[in-house]
């Protein structure tokens, strides 16, 4: 693919919405919390299940990345034109996803009414139903559910907003939402949709899935994701919803959109039985091939990548194998003086499972927008099985400003439990005309002028714009 064709295929993230552990409700709030060392893990589960599940070790730890329960129970059904009978049996993940989509469209300055009936596509990563087990506990009072499997989640969203492009719910386990983003990119590039709404949802308002994961020995007893650390004993579960609004970059520029970052492309594959000891064991070789393929498809070389946002769940096997795969791709193109930086948002918010990929891309988009690398937390001592190649790979342990002498590109890993691997490459958006954006405000009433000026200043600061203010 030549450079001109690649630029035509570039995709912009123009809007973001989220609900993430620690109380993050907007992308800027999430970024500011991360800069300050956010630890979104808590024991706030008294309104979900009895403490005896933890006391009797049915669930490995009471610590998790819980959202406020009101996020799952509060839903403005009249705003979304939903009947009471439908709203009460609708998966709370879907209800919150629909709400966050509205916020993401507002963030993108897109009036939802203006794209009703359009070819807008929807892709959502989802591993579980949040409340199905609760609905079937009492057979005599069971409420009838009309669902087309998990596909109902995306389809119901498209129905609510009257989007008529492709609409799919994707379950590749923990890589679901990043695979969904790759699908959204494809629909834009192929002309199937002009806008793609991609995201993920994850909730555990009752204990069943956590009991299963404990018995599978996936969850750690310490209740934290200590990515790359020697203390790892399993991952910490987290809830969350994340949404990104995608457009072709050329159209986003034409529409004068706020562009968080540019998606150059990516790739997804599966392990098969490639250097793999069991169906749930990660394959270093397959991950490495996937990353190399993503670079090849985007026309980039390993030296072009400044930072990799790792899957980094904090498991004894997964972290070392992931870093081995990264070293196999990037090791020869980086040096101790110019290392490849790595990190994982899971150290801050835990593992949001089917939301993990979109949570990672939101973190990277905000780091690029604000030109700052965010530090990894919960790190004290390197896992002895991890080889950082004598400093050619560097874990980001302090917030770092991004250099101005190069275009910053980042790779993002997201892997599924049974072998689905995805890698997306994002790039900072550099607007060459940014210094020519002048806001000229004339107002005779000084009180009104000060109010208006403060509004503009807050907007400018939130977008990290270099804007000249003229009295």
Task: Report on this structure.
The chain is an alpha/beta fold and 471 residues long. It folds into 2 domains: 3-427, Thiolase/Chalcone synthase (Peroxisomal Thiolase, Chain A, domain 1); 436-470. Helix content is 32%, strand content 17%. It has 16 helices and 15 strands. Helix 2 (27-35) packs across helix 15. It is globular. Belongs to the thiolase-like superfamily. Beta-ketoacyl-ACP synthases family. Residues 8-428 form the Ketosynthase family 3 (KS3) domain. It comes from Cavenderia fasciculata (Slime mold).
Query: Which class best fits the helix and strand makeup?
Result: alpha/beta
Given the structure, what is the number of helices? 16
Name given to the CATH homologous superfamily of the largest domain: Thiolase/Chalcone synthase
* End-to-end Cα distance: 48 Å
**Biggest sheet, spatial arrangement of strands:** 3-2-4-5-1-6-13-12-7-8-10
Could you estimate the helical fraction of the residues in percent? 25-40%
Q: In this structure, how is the largest beta sheet organized?
A: 11 strands, mixed
Number of strands: 15
CATH class of the largest domain: Alpha Beta
Number of domains: 2
- CATH architecture term of the largest domain: 3-Layer(aba) Sandwich
Query: What is the overall shape?
Result: globular
β content, as a range? 15-25%
Q: Stretches where pLDDT falls below 50 for ≥5 residues? A: none
Integer average pLDDT: 91
CATH fold-level topology of the largest domain: Peroxisomal Thiolase, Chain A, domain 1
Radius of gyration: 22 Å
Q: What is the oligomer described by this structure?
A: single chain
Organism: Cavenderia fasciculata
Family: Belongs to the thiolase-like superfamily. Beta-ketoacyl-ACP synthases family.
Protein name: Fatty acid synthase
Keywords: Phosphopantetheine, Phosphoprotein, Transferase
